[in-house]
Amino acid sequence: MIRFYFHPTPNPAKVALLLEEAAIPYVLVPVDTSKGEQHLPAFRAVNPNGKVPAIVDTEGPGGREARVFDSTAILLYLGDKLGRFVGTPADRPELLSWLLFIASGLGPFSGQAVHFQYAAPEGLDYAVRRYRREIERHYHVLDDHLAGREWITGKDYSIADMSAWGWLGRAVRVMKGSEDPLANFPNLKRLVQAIDARPAAARAKAVGKDHPFKTVNDEETKRALFPSNYPEQVK
Hints:
Elements: E1 2-6, H1 10-22, E2 26-30, H2 41-44, E3 54-57, E4 66-69, H3 71-82, H4 92-119, H5 125-146, H6 159-168, H7 171-174, H8 186-196, H9 199-206, H10 219-225
Parallel strand pairs: 1-2
Antiparallel strand pairs: 1-3, 3-4
């Protein structure tokens, strides 16, 4: 059984998609990051970095319980365990390259673009421009790669596509002010639409809908999400 620590944000969405695609039984454990639940000792025992997603696999290697944190690590762990959505051995170099391109570039730059456009103090125009331009650059890199390809690596749908979907599906928020942010990236748009059309994607989007996650952006939320801005509470 998988315990899936979740908040309705892009990185947990990737894992939700894989779990639904593979029909893996799991127990959802909501972690309300706006309330600071990611900093509680019980969750830090699962992910010392205090971030979602994370999983605990009660049937890990050798029958031992295994914890896995970071969305890319979880995708690789589950894909390898299942022997699904990881392509062929010949696909592995490309799969790892694009997974890490998303993990170290597309994802973090998307997150920073969201932060500086919605959460940071006004007047930081340089930061807004930098992250918006870097996102556009990353979009161009992946869009060019997808020209003439159905999926990111190999011939089949894989965890690389799921990983990209997590953030590309939030492009409207990442590219603030754009009603059609993928209009200039037709291959990315096609990829997102192809994944959205899968029944598992609809199920993944519904994960956690019945949990009352906090939506108010108040002082508690700011302290929970950006503790480094409050030196007195950083440990």
